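@channel sequence for tomorrow's demo:
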Amino acid sequence: MQKEILNSEKYRLISCFLITALFLFSLSLNAFCTSNDCIVGVNAFIMGSFGFLMFGADLMWLANPFFIVALILLFCGSKFSKYFSIISFCFSVGFLFFNQIIVNEAGDYYEIVSLGMGYWLWLLSSLLLFIAGLIFAKPIEWVDDQF
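structure tokens (generated this afternoon):
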């Protein structure tokens, strides 16, 4: 009975909706502050799509495409969602290890002085996506081969 509840399609879809809502809400808040300015999550999301080629902290933007793919796979009920979501979570956590970031097209580095609530909610959405991927993953069905 418990396994049927956890694998219920209704709960999987509700979790997809809530994780998406948390992710989108995180984009409306400050992601981080540099010595120059505070960057709102949506700006980091848009500018990161260009900046990830610069390496460093900007490379951690790659968490977003992995997050989106994992969310789509979870929505479809794929067991592969958990793999993409753990990669997304690792990239998200990786941002913690950097103290400088490029925030403009001139390539100027600015010191990261604080992380905003947007970053922490972004990180939480990635973690919740991984947990949902573990909970709602379809079990592997073994084929009984007869030799």
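heads up for whoever presents: The chain has a mean pLDDT of 84.
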